[in-house]
Amino acid sequence: MNAGVLYGKEDIRYEEIETPKPKKGEVLVKVKYSGICGSDVPRVNGDGAHFYPIILGHEFSGIVVETGEGVTKVKEGQRVAGAPLVPCMKCDDCKKGNYALCKNYSFIGTRQAGSFAEYICLPEQNVVPFKDTVSFEQGALFEPAAVALHGLECLTYEGGKTVAILGGGTIGLLVMQWANIFGAAKTVVFDIDDSRIELAKRMGASDGVNTLKEGFMEKAMELTQGKGYDYIYETAGSTMTMKMAYQLAANKAGICYIGKPTRELTFSVKEWENMNRKEFTMTGSWLSYSAPFPGHEWECVAHYFSTGQLKGEEALIFKKLPLSQIADGFEMFKTRGAVKGKILIDSEK
């Protein structure tokens, strides 16, 4: 088969390698599409890979073409997505259903062969079937959609309240959709790009705020009659938005940090006092799993894509590239602002 194999920094090669064979309890999937995740970029354009050579890719869809001994969950010909975490299932965290906290895990596309290839082998438990009415492009968005839902539920989310989403990227727009699906009274997306804000509105956001424009905080607060937001989901991982969450929070609000920060962060006494005075709850979110593995997050993604309530195929996908041009996809990320959505790698071209 052909694959995009990473050999070192800025050295990802399209080459022919041996096609894997499914072992007992494993499934062989012919990959249709794989999304380039933001976490893949520093592994290719930097020194973030755990080892070399490695096939990256963990957001993918495809068709089951072969099953190993003992597999009963899926059969050949089924459309599936893949949940990339491979927990040990033996440690205390796994036994409690906290699979994302497993210390003895593997991960498809970072610690074992991933989906930037024509075929991939994965454990039966990691295969997520979906209906024929769900496109393979949508299937490649299952993982970020599950991450977004997991983040939403890290707070005790209730409908009928105001929601601020900080960051209008893929995860932010998916969080916004989940908030609407589960009954938000108002969803407001914050970003520095007007085109992302307009996209958010087309996808269902009540309003949007450009945080580079003068007076943006006043506008943001006016949208809640000065009360602030009941829920704030930070998805950008920037210092600006991480601090902004404190200002936007209403009394007794909930703040969830989904985005990954890239630099050291400190809060002033005044900023920290916001938490004391408002008595808001603050938490983080990591990955997309719950019990039974891989979790209801993945089941909900399959369901709501099939009903059409969760959208993503056209609006979130920026570009499709053949597997042979995978290096070009990572090259685009070197130009700030050049990538305005998800890049999908087509493994059949």
Automatic annotation (TrEMBL):
One of its GO terms (molecular function) is oxidoreductase activity. It comes from the Bacteria. The lineage of its organism: Bacteria, Bacillati, Bacillota, Clostridia, Lachnospirales. The keyword Zinc applies. Its cofactor is Zn(2+). Keywords: Metal-binding, Oxidoreductase, Zinc. InterPro entries: ADH-like_C, ADH-like_N, ADH_Zn_CS, ER, GroES-like_sf, NAD(P)-bd_dom_sf, Zn_alcohol_dh. It comes from Candidatus Anaerostipes avistercoris. Residues 8-345 form the Enoyl reductase (ER) domain. Belongs to the zinc-containing alcohol dehydrogenase family. Gene3D superfamilies: Medium-chain alcohol dehydrogenases, catalytic domain (3.90.180.10), NAD(P)-binding Rossmann-like Domain (3.40.50.720). This is Galactitol-1-phosphate 5-dehydrogenase. PROSITE patterns: ADH_ZINC.
